Amino acid sequence: MLDPLFSWLLLLLGVVLGWALARRHSVTATASGSEGYTGAQLGGLLNQLVSDDPDQAIAALMAAAEFDSGTAELHLTLGKMFRKRGEMDRALRIHEALTQRENLPAALRTEAEFELAVDYMVAGVLDHAEQLFEQLAARGVNVAESLDAIRTIHEQARDWQLAIDAAQRLQSVKGESQRQTIAQYHCELADEARRAKQPDVAIRQVRAALDQDSHCVRALLLQGQLLEAQADFSGAAKAYLRAFEYDPRFLPDVIEPLQRCFAQTRDKERYLLFLSDAKEISSSSLPFVAEARLLSETGVNPMDHLAQGLEQRPSRAVLADFLDVLERQPDVVAAGLDKPAASLRKALLKLMESTPRYQCSNCGFSPRQMFWQCPGCKKWGTTAPADDVLR
Fold first, then answer.
1. What is the value of pTM for the model shown?
2. Statement to judge: residues 43 and 73 lie in one domain
3. pLDDT at position 215 over 50
4. Is 385 helix (H, G, I), strand (E, B) or coil?
5. What is the C-alpha separation between 34 and 25, in angstroms, rounded?
6. Domain that includes residue 340, residue range
């Protein structure tokens, strides 16, 4: 069943075609003495257009011999609506038929070719889509849009080097920087090299990413991980600290690696200084948690420190550690409250497992795991750890 808006569009398209056909045949009849389209014939065409059979409607529209700019634009709109509804075969039929019209004005033919390329891309026929977009760019029409689509195609195919090439072409044509996106592509290549156990290649790609965007947090985190794996703990710590400096929201991603690195370099004071600075710079409660654990390791009861954390930065993480310490306090055990405290802590940890840890600053998408390209809005580098403080 066609929805009302779709039926309206088909009806409007039919009226325009009917008017064009009637006008043409009226002129022909005047010249030859023959009659044009009758009201019944036009009514039959309109009945086809508003019927529940879209394929029959499309066939009727495509069979029309006369076309003008208004009619072609309505066909383009109809094709885009089919694409939006996910009916790709019908969108393809309409746009492909338009490109084959000999009497179609050049501008409208170009628009039809572009929409056909978009159809192919949405349908997943990426080779056809890329070929059409390349042809359009080579002819100097829709250049920026076509190059951006080519970049997206290579992105979908995870062919990162070709995506870099397309982004660089787009940058030169559009005059807008693509450096942050290109840096993300280099990070993808670095990740691939790391998984393939090619650390030297991964390091080169990380450096290429930082050449494009020196503040790329992802590249700095990768650099820290790669250097840490090579036992360069001092270099790794510098990379992690730079990542935190450029975006304090990533404290959850650097706080434990920095503890490991400073432990290896026997620089506990430097780690304590970092935690102190982090409390001033970041809104996260994690510095309180880390300090409390260090106190516990040295035999100091961290209850008071965690209580201070709950007062200043109330969060599930601080509360969970507070309950963990609380259930082991002698007076709590003596009062028989250790088991209720443990049950509460376990329930809290279970709740934390289902709580989104990250959030996209562009669209608000909140996943449990990190996505450097947001699955919601497809933007790169907009997702970061979510604020853990309860408000």
1. 0.80
2. yes
3. yes
4. strand
5. 8
6. 290-354
